Amino acid sequence: MGIITVDKSDHLFWLGRYTERVYTTLKYYFQSADKMIDANPEYYGEFCRKIGIPNAYGTREKFLRAYPFDETDPNSIISSLNRAYDNAIVMRDYIGTETMAYIQLAIDDIHNAKNGSAALADLMLTLDHILAFWGCVNDMIDDEQIRNIIKLGKGLERLDLYLSLDLPDNDVRREYRRMKQFLAKSKLRYDESVINTVDNMMTDDPLNHPNLKKLLRNLINE
Amino acid sequence: MKELIKNAETINRLLARYGVKFGIYKDGTFKEQLFPFDPIPRIISNGEFQYLEKGLKQRVNALNCFLSDIYGEKRIVRDGVIPEEFIYSAKGFLPPCDGVTPPKNIYSHISGIDLVQSKDDNWYILEDNLRVPSGASYPMIARELQRRSAPDAFSSNSVIDNRNYADMLKEVMDYVNTGGINVILSPGRYNAAFFEHSYLAEKTGAVLSTGKEIVCENDRLYYIDYLGRKQRVGAVYRRISDEYLDPMTFYEDSVIGIPHIFEAYKKGNVALLNAPGNGVADDKGIYYFVPKMIKYYLGEDAILKNAPTYLPYYEDDMRYVLDKFDNLVIKDVAEAGGYGVVFGSSLSKEKKEAFIQLLKSEPRRFIAQEVIDFYDLDILGTDGTQVPRKADLRAFVLTDGETKVWPSGLTRFSRNPDSFIVNSSQGGGFKDTWVLSR
Lengths: 222, 438
Hints:
The complex is a heterodimer of chains A (222) and B (438). With 222 residues, chain A is mainly α. The longest helix of chain A has 32 residues. The two termini of chain A are 22 Å apart. With 438 residues, chain B is α+β, with helices and mostly antiparallel strands. In chain B, helix 2 packs across helix 6 and helix 3 packs across helix 13. Chains A and B meet through helix 1 and helix 6 of A and helix 9 and strand 7 of B.
């Protein structure tokens, strides 16, 4: 393809971010839902605090229903998936019909899960199709630049979520290293001073998650 | 055929998977809708296709001659073949295009000609679409999927492969390209035909743009990437209407056009497919004159007939229209997409009187046509039985160094048993169109 405009790079970047947001928050939702069965029924409050969304749910049941499926809630998983679709649909000519289809299938899955009798189990299919989407990005998109921008979005979102969720420092360091590879390859404009500072902070033990998160949010000049 | 019918649901599911949708606005809200696909194809024998091909090429060649003439010497007006009032009052006649010759002197590169077949087996042209005819992508992708789900139906029926449309389109873009990349210019995601724009961009390798990334400098167009690098644009297959194409020349409030693109085009620095101003040739009033154009420019009789048409503008025709009002269909020349179509027999007494007053006060605004009792094609009903429905055919005719007819087309059908309106925006569906190689 060869030519990527500012708008298109933005769509690719956010396509990566939103698909990752769906993937990681859905996985965290599964773990949290399990905790809420017997260990800690009120865990959804902690979930909201960690993810950084208002706890407007009131009850465990409402949270379990609304967080994945409520399209009127901009923080829900289905809203993130719809935003991924919004970014994918305008990039058909870059990512291809086959690749785009996996976002559509993930949307179909989440709608089916919403109307099904075993929502949590059915939502597994959404994860499958997000993974298939990424597989397709690797396998079917020839243009390295396009792949790198999507992966940069994905990597940065993952890092942001791992820091929010306080995942182990080694996981954060690994994702940071990965993200940095794509940052260089994507050729997107970014703030080098942020990278220099974060590089230094990555040697700290333990890592300062809130500060890293704040800094990384200023990395890309949009 | 059984194999095709058996897999109808699978095909519709796959079409949804690939985002084969069209957008509509309902109550001010944008919605994406699936374009219902019927698995029973329209079948055109090879002999019949050859006849259609000959007639369609002839028609499009004459229409291209007409456009070249009307924005040039205007001989056809001077020679009294078409009254000048019909030219200059046509909404699609654009004075800024007067005297402008497009690259390679081609005006209509992609023509969508709508036909129906009557019960006496004759084909009639219903209308010419020479601005931004859409619909080729639907049979392209449906064919791809049907070949997967019912391969035997294709191997045993000698169906000409229609998946070459993107190659044909690319050849046309390349032929008129003035040096640079090919771009498909779309109004954006919320346009009814956005699926088609993005799909054709993918399949032709053209860049899909909403115009924001394109600038005009020194009467040349450039596409700007995210690092600020510029690439020259040589051809723009624009899927936006003339009036929105360039706010500096046409509708000044347009936010989807490219400022100064018309200047670049005028200077021969970019090809626009189709050329601006083509609307004068597909005006429903001008349609009446196409057989005369064929005679005038090509010295031939029209191979494909127009539906019998009357112009209330002419006194004799007005008398006929008033006399036979209940048997005719009246069309507002300014409308499209199945809108502005009135069947005389469907009006109440009061509405009929009001309509006739309007007709008398604005005779140039309407044409009247005999209602053609066109062939019903079988579709698969909701209960799995086959039911007959009205259907038309949009043939795609592409013009570069020569004029070619795509061996397929978009067959649209009405889902309503009492309706002649097949447009997708009014609930119609589509079928594949098979042209047999034998």
